[in-house]
């Protein structure tokens, strides 16, 4: 079965659904905090990562490069965590960080405001007005985060394979629906699907190493992997820098060959 990602608004029931599915499937259930802890190993504090996720535009100052660096670390942490499969991830735009394809089943959970507000009132002791304001604020921050990082609408249904409304469904019924879709032939976790996530994990690790290295930390690259061959695309300031990039990439476990033809100076070299 594929890796499953669950996107949801605050207090929509997505966390409980993820935990329910994990128990039924025997999958690991991974949340945002776990990935933040792993991403921090690349040299960014957990507090900084958490703040960037919750309040990205103001914290990052609309810096495209800071955005790139944080995404490199987060994506490397997430892809490494799920590359063996048998995982459910909820939170932090997993459906965007893990790409698309048969290795991934992207779920979106929605629920009416009354349903969500009641959950907030019950758990946090807010009034109904306070609960609605809290939910709207959290949703807006998540919307801004995905718009800022990916230039997409967080609520766009085309980003998901399945959208479920928990207004009428119980958690068990929603889990049944997801399991039925996960068993479809198009989501079979084949050898090809496994290769797709392995290659994404390898490319993500190379990108994170490049983002961390002092000689390349100020640059941005597109990195792809096919088999053990990694292709790196981006702008550099000197041919010597290309040599350093190649050395960094070849030092990553699993990289067999590095293609640098698409690195560019003022002219392609």
Description of the molecule:
The protein is globular. The chain is built from eleven helices and nine strands. The strands form two sheets. It has a five-stranded parallel sheet. The longest helix has 23 residues, at 128-150. Strand 7 (229-235), helix 11 and strand 8 (257-259) form a beta-alpha-beta unit. The protein folds into two domains: 3-187, 3-Layer(aba) Sandwich (Rossmann fold); 213-262. Helix 2 packs across helix 5 (64-82). The chain has 269 residues and is of the alpha/beta class.
Low-confidence stretches: none
**What's the architecture of the largest domain, going by CATH?**
3-Layer(aba) Sandwich
Task: Please identify the top-level CATH class of the largest domain.
Answer: Alpha Beta
The third-level CATH topology of the largest domain is Rossmann fold
N-C termini distance: 44 Å
Strands, count = 9
Order of helices and strands: EHEHHHHEHEHHEHHEEHEE
The CATH superfamily label of the largest domain reads P-loop containing nucleotide triphosphate hydrolases
Structural class assignment:
alpha/beta
Mean pLDDT: 88
How large is the radius of gyration? 20 Å
**Count of discrete structural domains:** 2
Strand order of the largest sheet: 2-3-1-4-5
Helical residue percent band: 40-55%
The major β-sheet equals: 5 strands, parallel
Strand content: 15-25%
Number of helices: 11
């Amino acid at each position: 079965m594929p890796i499953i990602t669950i996107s949801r608004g605050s207090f929509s029931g997505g966390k409980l659904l993820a935990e329910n599915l994990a128990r039924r499937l025997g999958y690991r259930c991974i949340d945002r905090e776990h990935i933040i802890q792993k991403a921090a190993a690349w040299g960014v504090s957990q507090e900084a990562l958490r703040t960037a996720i919750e309040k990205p535009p103001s914290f990052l100052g609309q810096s495209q490069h800071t955005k790139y660096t944080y995404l490199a670390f987060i994506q490397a942490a997430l892809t490494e965590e799920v590359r063996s499969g048998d995982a459910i991830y909820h939170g932090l735009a997993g459906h965007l960080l893990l790409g698309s394809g048969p290795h991934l089943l992207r779920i979106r959970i929605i629920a009416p405001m009354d349903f969500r507000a009641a959950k907030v009132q019950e758990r946090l002791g807010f009034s109904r007005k306070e609960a609605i304001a809290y939910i709207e604020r959290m949703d807006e921050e998540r919307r801004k985060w995905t718009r800022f990082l990916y230039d997409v609408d967080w609520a766009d249904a085309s980003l998901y394979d399945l959208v479920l409304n928990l207004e009428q469904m119980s958690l068990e019924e929603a889990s049944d629906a997801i399991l039925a879709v996960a068993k479809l032939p198009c989501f079979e976790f084949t050898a090809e699907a496994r290769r797709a996530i392995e290659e994404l994990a390898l490319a993500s690790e190379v990108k994170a190493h490049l983002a961390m290295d002092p000689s390349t930390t100020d640059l941005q690259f597109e990195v792809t992997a096919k088999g053990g061959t990694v292709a790196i695309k981006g702008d550099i300031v000197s041919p010597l820098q290309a040599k350093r990039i190649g050395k960094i990439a070849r030092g990553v476990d699993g990289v067999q060959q590095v293609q640098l033809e698409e690195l560019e100076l003022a002219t392609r070299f």
